TrEMBL record:
Protein name per UniProt: Response regulator transcription factor
Protein source organism: Actinoallomurus vinaceus
Signal peptide: none
A Pfam family of this chain: GerE
Statement: the UniProt record of this protein carries the keyword Magnesium: no
Domain of life, per lineage: Bacteria
Ranges where the Response regulatory domain occurs: 1-117
Keywords assigned: DNA-binding, Phosphoprotein, Transcription, Transcription regulation
InterPro entries per record: CheY-like_superfamily (IPR011006), NreC/VraR/RcsB-like_REC (IPR058245), Sig_transdc_resp-reg_C-effctor (IPR016032), Sig_transdc_resp-reg_receiver (IPR001789), Tscrpt_reg_LuxR_C (IPR000792), WalR-like (IPR039420)
Chain positions with 4-aspartylphosphate modification: 48
Domain called HTH luxR-type: residue spans: 138-208
Sections of the chain in a coiled coil: none
Alphabetical list of SUPFAM superfamilies matching this protein: C-terminal effector domain of the bipartite response regulators, CheY-like
Length: 208
């Protein structure tokens, strides 16, 4: 399910997704998105933030509404804007969410990879979204982290696995495991299944 008011971008995304075997239903405003999802439960929702009728944050608020009405529905926000007040709220709804910036998607494969990870229950966040959400904020718990631990946490926010983080930072996977353990300890996260603790760490990182 694609919610995008720009005709050219909407049609372009439909063509791209169709080329890779995805069937797309498209709408042009937030109320239509909510109604369409109720009628035809999609595998994943891709939505812009600023859409009709008000061109403010209708798309993101619709995404939150859909996550509450349909728990577990995968939602990927694809926008030019970072709406700080609602982005962290969306991420707090659990796995199967993402927030990517249109201008920073480097290629089609990168976009499709993020979409598929969200559809599979992962969390995908553009590092620039993370930086903007943290702008001017540095909670006391986050202040405990080293520079390297912040780098690891940023990649965790992107939904990267330990092996992917190791490749990106050119360190061993064992070193990543050690850093992740230190991050969870310094953020005072309670014992829980590993995946859930990683999500909690990312949310703590974003909320500051």
């Amino acid at each position: 399910m694609l919610a995008e008011d720009s005709v050219l971008l909407r049609e372009g995304l439909i063509q791209i997704l169709g080329r890779f075997g995805h069937e797309t239903v498209a709408v042009a405003d937030a109320p239509a998105l909510v109604a369409a999802v109720a009628d035809d439960r999609p595998d994943v929702v891709v939505t812009d933030v600023r859409m009709p009728p008000g061109y403010r944050d209708e798309g993101l608020r619709a995404a939150l509404e859909l996550r509450r009405a349909h728990p577990g529905l995968p939602v990927l926000v694809l926008s030019q804007y970072v709406e700080q007040s609602y982005a962290a709220d969306l991420l707090q709804t659990g796995g199967g969410v993402g927030y990517l910036l249109k201008d920073r998607v480097g290629d089609v494969a990168e976009f499709l990879d993020g979409l598929e990870r969200v559809a599979g229950g992962g969390t995908v966040i553009d590092p620039e979204v993370v930086r903007r959400l943290l702008s001017g904020r540095d909670g006391s718990r986050l202040g405990r982290l080293t520079d390297r631990e912040r780098q690891v946490l940023e990649l965790m926010a992107e939904g990267r696995s330990n092996s992917a983080i190791a490749r990106r930072l050119v360190i061993s996977e064992a070193a990543v495991v050690k850093h992740v353990g230190s991050i969870l300890m310094k953020l005072d996260l309670p014992p829980a299944p590993d995946d859930h603790r990683r999500v909690l760490a990312v949310l703590t990182y974003l909320r500051g």
